[in-house]
Amino acid sequence: MKMKSGVEQAICILAMLATQVNQDPIKSFVLSERLKVSDSFLKKIVRRLVVAGLVESSASKEGGFSLAKSPSEITMLDIFEAIEGKQSAIQPLHLAEHVFFANDSVITKENEVLNIFYEAERLFKDKLNQFSLTDVLTSHDYEKKMFDWKNIMSELGQ
């Protein structure tokens, strides 16, 4: 299974928003600069997070992006589905039925194989659903730290 790079970027964006001092909104150019991606690409990722209800957008001089939910309410499954979509990754073409002439035996075996893939996908999503953004932050001890991402570059001497 291949996962889009946007999933990793979305996790980082959400972690930045979660650790922003006073939960102040962060402008897209600040996020894109820190992640070293183009602002237009970052906006596409953040747009998906907004549509999924994970991020809020406010357009004003002091606006930007902020979390729409607490980190404990955002699972890795939420993030994965915001970027990858909710549809199944398994899209069978039923080739065995065409190659081996559809009969009960071929259809039964094809269904067995498909069921293995569906079960693996279910287990994958169940596991993602058990891990929240808070788990990411606590595993790195960030729940105790807050950053002013707007000014972080000057704080780091960059």
Layout of helices and strands, plus pairs?
Layout: H1 5-18, H2 28-35, H3 39-51, E1 55-58, E2 64-67, H4 76-84, H5 95-99, H6 104-129, H7 133-139, H8 152-155
Antiparallel strand pairs: 1-2
Helix pairs in contact: 1-3, 1-4, 2-3, 4-6
* Fourth-tier CATH superfamily name of the domain at 5-87 and 132-155: Winged helix-like DNA-binding domain superfamily/Winged helix DNA-binding domain
CATH architectural category of the domain at 5-87 and 132-155? Orthogonal Bundle
Report how far apart the termini are.
38 Å
Write down how many β-strands occur, each being a DSSP E stretch of 2 or more residues: 2
Mean pLDDT: 90
What is the makeup of the main sheet?
Answer: 2 strands, antiparallel
- Order the strands across the largest sheet as they lie in space: 1-2
State Rg: 20 Å
Q: What overall form do the CA principal axes indicate?
A: elongated
What share of residues are in beta strands?
5-15%
Structural class: mainly alpha
CATH class of the domain at 5-87 and 132-155: Mainly Alpha
What ranges have pLDDT less than 50 throughout 5 or more consecutive residues?
none
Find the CATH topology of the domain at 5-87 and 132-155.
Arc Repressor Mutant, subunit A
Order of helices and strands: HHHEEHHHHH
| Amount of helix | 40-55%
